[in-house]
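Write out this protein's structure.
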Amino acid sequence: MVPPVNEWQDEWDALDESAQASMKARQGVRYQILDGLDVIDPETMQPVPPDGATMGEVMFRGNIVMKGYLKNPSASEKAFHGGWFHSGDLGVMHPDGYIQLKDRSKDVIISGGENISSIEVEDVLFKHPKVAAAAVVAAPDDKWGETPCAFVELREGEDATAEEIIAWSRDHLARFKCPRHVVFGALPKTSTGKIQKYILRDKARTLWSSDASTAAL
């Protein structure tokens, strides 16, 4: 997979630190050796409006992209539907042509028909002064289909309640995006430090069945 590159623009030098950080957070534009890179609606296969808000799937194509999966034609056909490689990354296209990733398609939480970016919720949780790490996954819900469940690892020596974390979320997010469950404990990680969300998804299903708001990992 060939990711975009965030090519720095000279005019960004005049921005304040917060604005520069926002620009740096974008994934950017295509490499010159890549034929095409865009944010596309996977249903219509048309580019999404470059408004920085409409979400689509990041897709690319070119002779440096793999030809397909070895001895797996069905997976290859799915991955290259419409002549583009479907990365599985969801993002937006800004008016200046720069892409910004928002989530992985498998991590998006669909609650009552509304798409919730797990990354957006995690970004808010990371800003809480007591939080060292956080991950958000879908928990089953009888009414809404699924709702966000937050797994939170607190800073050493800190203590917090689920109500505190949820209240913080409500101060920074639309209410439907806020976690309804909070689970405290050390987050499962790979040897490289990546949080293992598939483990947390299983934990969330167990949490929902217990009707508890907090639990121990």
